[in-house]
Amino acid sequence: MPPGWADRYGHRVENYQLPQTEAERLAFATAVGADGAVILTRVDADDAPAVLEQLEAVQVLRAVWPQQYDLAANSPRWRATEELPSSQERIASPYDVECRYAIKRTTRWTGYKCHLTEHCGSRGGGRPAGAADTGRPVGDSPCRGRQFHAREGHLRVGRNHVEDTAGDGSESVSVRLGGWLDNTRRRADKLTPERRAELDALGMRW
């Protein structure tokens, strides 16, 4: 292992742990970019075990690095904000590749959004469609899981399935439901009991 890696990556990196000045942050990001490039170079080497390419962590790294760094330079260059892909395309967290960075008025977060619409009918009064029974907001993908289950009667979703629905106004909102469910299975041990119960109720196949 190269010197310094244990100090940089021996624990989960949080914003409050990052250097405080812009110059120090740039230096840290440049070092991280170079480290990631070293890993990808070694994975691509002719004598590297083929199984490395199949690791989820490697696949995420290969997707994230071109988004965050200009790899055409001699060494990876950290992209300026205006060079980054849109928030809809950009992977915001390596721990959950389906979540996205979002802004709603003055609130900013990395996670999910749930679009709610009211319905009128003889059953259920005006209960918002897709609202959680717990009264707390839930993410786009869980909402679409309930939508899929209500339509199909099960949650056997293909890996590449994309669930579409109307969002705010009339625009269409697409969620990679199959990918989100697959990623959720991989981190099942990190889910809250409430989230597991929600998915179990929909027939989640762990």
SSE order: HHHEEEEHEEHH
Q: Radius of gyration, Cα only, in angstroms?
A: 20 Å
Strand order of the largest sheet: 1-2
Task: Give the tally of β-strands.
Answer: 6
The coarse silhouette is globular
The helix fraction, in percent, is: 25-40%
Into which percentage range does the β-strand content fall?
5-15%
State the secondary-structure class: alpha+beta
Mean pLDDT: 78
Outline the low-pLDDT stretches: 124-139
Could you explain the architecture of this structure?
The protein is of the alpha+beta class. It contains 6 helices and 6 strands; from the N terminus they run H-H-H-E-E-E-E-H-E-E-H-H. It has helices spanning about 5-10, 20-45, 55-70, 140-150, 175-185, 195-200, and strands at about 70, 75-80, 100-105, 105-110, 165, 170-175. A two-stranded antiparallel ribbon has the order 1-2. Strands 3-4 form a two-stranded antiparallel ribbon. It has a two-stranded antiparallel sheet with strand order 5-6. Helix 2 (about 20-45) packs across helix 3 (about 55-70). The two termini are about 35 Å apart. Residues about 125-140 have low confidence and may be disordered.
